[in-house]
Amino acid sequence: xxxxxxxxxxxxxxxxxxxxxxxxxxxxxxxxxxxxxxxxxxxxxxxxxxxxxxxxxxxxxxxxxxxxxxxxxxxxxxxxxxxxxxxxxxxxxxxxxxxxxxxxxxxxxxxxxxxxxxxxxxxxxxxxxxxxxxxxxxxxxxxxxxxxxxxxxxxxxxxxxxxxxxxxxxxxxxxxxxxxxxxxxxxxxxxxxxxxxxxxxxxxxxxxxxxxxxxxxxxxxxxxxxxxxxxxxxxxxxxxxxxxxxxxxxxxxxxxxxxxxxxxxxxxxxxxxxxxxxxxxxxxxxxxxxxxxxxxxxxxxxxxxxxxxxxxxxxxxxxxxxxxxxxxxxxxxxxxxxxxxxxxxxxxxxxxxxxxxxxxxxxxxxxxxxxxxxxxxxxxxxxxxxxxxxxxxxxxxxxxxxxx
Length: 404
Ligand code: 2PG
Ligand code: MG
Fold this sequence. Notes:
By secondary structure, the chain is an alpha/beta fold. The protein has two domains: about 120 residues, Enolase-like, N-terminal domain (Enolase-like, domain 1), CATH 3.30.390; about 280 residues, Enolase-like C-terminal domain (TIM Barrel, Alpha-Beta Barrel). It is built from 13 helices and 15 strands. The protein has an eight-stranded mixed beta barrel, surrounded by six helices. A three-stranded antiparallel sheet has the order 1-2-3. A two-stranded antiparallel sheet has the order 6-7. The protein starts with 8 loop residues before the first strand and ends with a helix.
């Protein structure tokens, strides 16, 4: 091994995420470069995702890093990403990182890749994805919602838009114009009362989901006709959060499983939605399969909580045709190599991938690079707010580089 890639130092610190909660940030230091990554946090988490922190919280992760991890990784070859990720799994010893914390594993794993890329003098998307990658994922952002991301909002967690501009800058600008229009419409309805912003800076108001559907369609159509672009509509039901074991409980209606399937299909058939995430609770593979059979030829049926970026779970879903796309979040599984395995399996099986932020974010922009490296169809990362625009603006820079 070249000494140039030997880990010379490694450290962890506590920083804040966008909800004001502490999270971990790690530095991996090589002789001529450093890689730094801070981990995000979910609010609506899948049952099978990596545990963000061990029982003692962020402090436990920090202590474990100092006492058990640091000495093992010093001197390690930064080009051996798989070996490094395997080492993290060995030190942890569980299958969901409940010992050292999935967020510490995520931060270390991505820091290592960044350090190696920096030493080689290439951007992260090239290091992970190779030199032939040239597509930027379509940015899709949450503009109105509720669920676990805000009290008093819609039952459905996220209503999203993806404007298809000629450049990333045009697309993200138009997404934010849809966001602004929705704010104006809601203010009009509520005369300035009872509206606010959720964790991802999407609008939140005490309205029924069907009203939200009308509002987003109106705003999107206005932008389509004013700017002559297509605006793709998306939704993340995050359905596990309002399934009580028997019914899908909306504010007014309580839907049976079959009614929920029909409702999800109606968003595609009657309202033109294309991106349909987690329409059923996370154990209902068969429900996902039924929706895919019914509308999968005209829409993406995207699994998030059901797959948790886990290749094993995804294998089952692919066999059952329970979806045709998967949401990708590194800290659901804990390492870059495991994320790569899930992406590879999805892509080689003809499924699309959508790289995603978490509702609690930092300003780290690694998902913008990974979205390009993975050849993702979409990148889900909000429309406004510093921790969201950090990623969107990085896409603008990457597009500029790819063009040059
Ligand atoms: C989701 C994500 C991101 P969270 O459900 O897709 O929008 O939310 O990070 O809270 O899991
Ligand atoms: Mg989701």
